[in-house]
Amino acid sequence: MFENAFNNIDRFMRNDEGLASELDYAEQTSWLLFLKYLNDLEAERQDAAELEGRDYRPILDERFRWDVWAAPKINGRLDDNAVTGSDLIDFVNRDLFPYLTKFRQTATSPDSIEYKIGEIFSEIINKFRSGYALRDVLEVVDSLRFNTQSAKHELSDLYESRIKRMGNAGRNGGEYYTPRPLIRAMIKVVDPKVGETIYDGAAGSAGFLCEAWEYLSHDNLSGADYDTLQRRTFYGQEKKSLAYVLGVMNMILHGIEAPNIRHTNTLTENVMDIQQRDRHDIVLANPPFGGGERKEVQQNFPIKSGETAYLFLQHFIRKLKAGGRGAVVIKNTFLSNTDGASVALRKELLESCDLHTVLDCPGGTFQGAGVKTVVLFFEKGAKTRSVWYYQLDPGRSLGKTNPLNDVDLADFVALQPERTNSARSWSVDVANLDMSTWDLSVKNPNAPEEAPLRSPEEIIDAMLARDAETAEILEDIRGML
């Protein structure tokens, strides 16, 4: 049912000239789903208050509630006189969005659902131009229900697939979507426990936080543990407006009522100002590559760099508590670049953390991304003595129709706890590294040696010999004619 609903939403959106891409579809679906979710949440809170004999004051004023403007009903059926056409667009643009935006100023806490309302509607706009197309979509969204875990699970799967399509449609597939099998493998290695805090300072669509929630939540959780997961476990920050909206909605669909994601540029925080109360037990992240921050932002870091990922890695190291665990995706060139920032950052990582594992990912792991990546697994508080490498080789070319899967990563996950050496894995003693470069390049000692490259002279001689042989054969054929 939900899959058909999402397909119908896409069909109606394609009929609106204001919506031109998968990014638009994901953004516009998100704010509509959010308001429908909020309506269902209010109904649940109202019922709970009545059972407990207390008053409940709804978050939204009456005229802005879903069942008043979006899906008014008479005897359980949609009111034929529900506002539509240009009147509906005018109401959304002139009344609804400005009203919802004000919640950012009146909310008591950035972590409250009220603040999320204000933040979301301050950062996006309604892109529907046709009130008739919007009315069609509203009717479909109204048919969705968020009141059971199975419904939320199915909706979250469909929403994830939409984020994946959106990521594939962009120039950089890794910007909005990190392959879920890779995230799950990272989480299994880090092995978070209930009571530990998990942080992603480049949250994107919150894939790491959602998968960590799935890893930790199960049916026999105690009430106290469930409350801990809901309120005091998952923390994120995201700079981009669309990604922030996607992340909040993704976490809500996974079952987290008021996600602790803040809309801010993480890199504007001076890492030297990070206090113990700001630190976390676990960091899971895939920070953006390249980009380049302004020089005033680089001043927030002891190692200055125009590479955004290098600034994020410094931030993550300092956001970890002593003994905290990190798993961070980064370009594989970080392991070998010889510029001053790369060398200094490798040195800091090795001397302030135990970089115990490097997972080398094959090309095509991230759809649309033209760079190869590695995953750094480290623990803060002890120097690195040995690094265990695993070179992932799924035995096929990865692509949109043949993506990375959980089976591809099963061998890595099985070998990592003991850091077992194999044809694909090996260990490097840090004492044997060149301390002038701290080069951590992936060099599999178990791989068969490649044949030595021929010199240019040898290649030219071989070509001339082949040409002479070809001419001789052609002369023989001429003689037989």
TrEMBL record:
<keyword id="KW-0680">Restriction system</keyword>
<comment type="similarity">
    <text>Belongs to the N(4)/N(6)-methyltransferase family.</text>
</comment>
<dbReference type="InterPro" id="IPR029063">
    <property type="entry name" value="SAM-dependent_MTases_sf"/>
</dbReference>
<keyword id="KW-0949">S-adenosyl-L-methionine</keyword>
<dbReference type="InterPro" id="IPR038333">
    <property type="entry name" value="T1MK-like_N_sf"/>
</dbReference>
<dbReference type="GO" id="GO:0009007">
    <property type="term" value="F:site-specific DNA-methyltransferase (adenine-specific) activity"/>
</dbReference>
<feature type="domain" description="DNA methylase adenine-specific">
    <location>
        <begin position="151"/>
        <end position="450"/>
    </location>
</feature>
<keyword id="KW-0808">Transferase</keyword>
<dbReference type="Pfam" id="PF12161">
    <property type="entry name" value="HsdM_N"/>
</dbReference>
<dbReference type="GO" id="GO:0009307">
    <property type="term" value="P:DNA restriction-modification system"/>
</dbReference>
<protein>
    <recommendedName>
        <fullName>site-specific DNA-methyltransferase (adenine-specific)</fullName>
        <ecNumber>2.1.1.72</ecNumber>
    </recommendedName>
</protein>
<keyword id="KW-0489">Methyltransferase</keyword>
<dbReference type="InterPro" id="IPR003356">
    <property type="entry name" value="DNA_methylase_A-5"/>
</dbReference>
<dbReference type="GO" id="GO:0032259">
    <property type="term" value="P:methylation"/>
</dbReference>
<dbReference type="Pfam" id="PF02384">
    <property type="entry name" value="N6_Mtase"/>
</dbReference>
<dbReference type="GO" id="GO:0003677">
    <property type="term" value="F:DNA binding"/>
</dbReference>
<dbReference type="InterPro" id="IPR022749">
    <property type="entry name" value="D12N6_MeTrfase_N"/>
</dbReference>
<dbReference type="GO" id="GO:0008170">
    <property type="term" value="F:N-methyltransferase activity"/>
</dbReference>
<feature type="domain" description="N6 adenine-specific DNA methyltransferase N-terminal">
    <location>
        <begin position="13"/>
        <end position="105"/>
    </location>
</feature>
<dbReference type="InterPro" id="IPR002052">
    <property type="entry name" value="DNA_methylase_N6_adenine_CS"/>
</dbReference>
<dbReference type="InterPro" id="IPR051537">
    <property type="entry name" value="DNA_Adenine_Mtase"/>
</dbReference>
